[in-house]
Specification:
The longest helix has 21 residues. This protein is of the alpha/beta class and 248 residues long. The protein has one domain: 3-Layer(aba) Sandwich (Rossmann fold), CATH 3.40.50. The chain has a six-stranded mixed beta sheet. The N and C termini lie far apart (45 Å). It is built from eight helices and six strands. The structure holds 3-phosphoglyceric acid. The site of 3-phosphoglyceric acid has 13 residues, from α7. Catalyzes the interconversion of 2-phosphoglycerate and 3-phosphoglycerate. Its EC number is 5.4.2.11. This is 2,3-bisphosphoglycerate-dependent phosphoglycerate mutase.
Length: 248
């Protein structure tokens, strides 16, 4: 049996401000840092120990991973980073307040933009300063891979090849793996591992800083998955994420 851990970054500055973030590279708040350390403590207490870690090219996930590993005394393990684990690109919504956007366009429309499987938010213009082609960290990416917006289906399409080629083989050879990434990039992997339908994925919300464990059999089929931590706190945190996209 294999166990892998998925960890969404701790609270970011724009989580706190309730703004659409996507590929905007915001940092953690103090609470987010504390959540990352706490995730490490919980994992250590439950007997987890990692051989290798995977994360995105975004500061909030990178720092969450570092703080988590530090509190587990595992700062020395190899860390592989890829843009394929980045948050789903939120297109022209990036920077906007989620509740204000819901007040303007309606809760239903915002739910579609946030959670539907195949309807992307409005796209950025190529000339927009928020376009990732203007960010040197993506300079080596083929132009066609640079998103102007993404729906979850697009995110699945970029995440799964990385899972298959880089992460899964390490797990298969017996390495214990943690993946520190983002709400929607982790929903992509969640959808795949838990075999969630295109319709049902709309109801899946991943809270910040709470380790999510997947237990997989030899065929890489999910036997069970669960969050570590107090179930009531997890439930509340998931509801809070769902409510972020509603008008006040
Ligand atoms: O990109 C963002 O705004 C968040 O990281 C995830 O947001 P969501 O829960 O609104 O999809």
């Amino acid at each position: 049996m294999y166990k892998i851990v998925l960890l969404r970054h701790g609270e970011s500055q724009w989580n706190l401000e309730n703004r659409f973030t996507g590929w905007t590279d915001v940092d953690l708040t103090e609470k987010g840092e504390a959540q990352a350390r706490e995730a490490g403590h919980v994992l250590a207490k439950e007997g987890f120990r990692f051989d290798i870690a995977f994360t995105s090219l975004q500061t909030r996930a990178n720092r969450t991973l570092n703080l988590c590993l530090e509190s587990m005394n595992l700062s020395f393990i190899p860390v592989l980073k890829s843009w394929r684990l980045n948050e789903r690109h939120y297109g022209a919504l990036q920077g906007l307040d989620k509740s204000e956007t819901a007040a303007k366009y309606g809760d239903e429309q915002v739910l579609v933009w946030r959670r539907s499987y195949d309807i992307p938010p409005p796209a950025l213009e190529l000339t927009d300063e928020r376009f990732p082609g203007n960010d040197p960290r993506y300079a080596d990416l083929p132009k066609d891979d640079l998103p102007q917006t993404e729906c979850l289906k697009d995110c699945v399409a970029r995440f799964l090849p990385y899972w298959d080629m880089e992460i899964k083989p390490r797990v298969a050879e017996g390495k214990s793996v943690i993946i520190a990434a983002h709400g929607n990039s982790l929903r992509s992997l969640y959808k795949h591992l838990a075999k969630v339908s295109d319709e049902d994925i709309i109801g899946v919300n991943i809270p910040t800083g709470m380790p999510l464990v997947f237990e997989l059999n030899e065929k890489f089929e999910t036997e069970k998955f669960y969050y570590l931590g107090d179930p009531e706190a997890v439930k509340k945190a998931m509801e809070a994420v769902a409510n972020q996209g509603k008008a006040k």
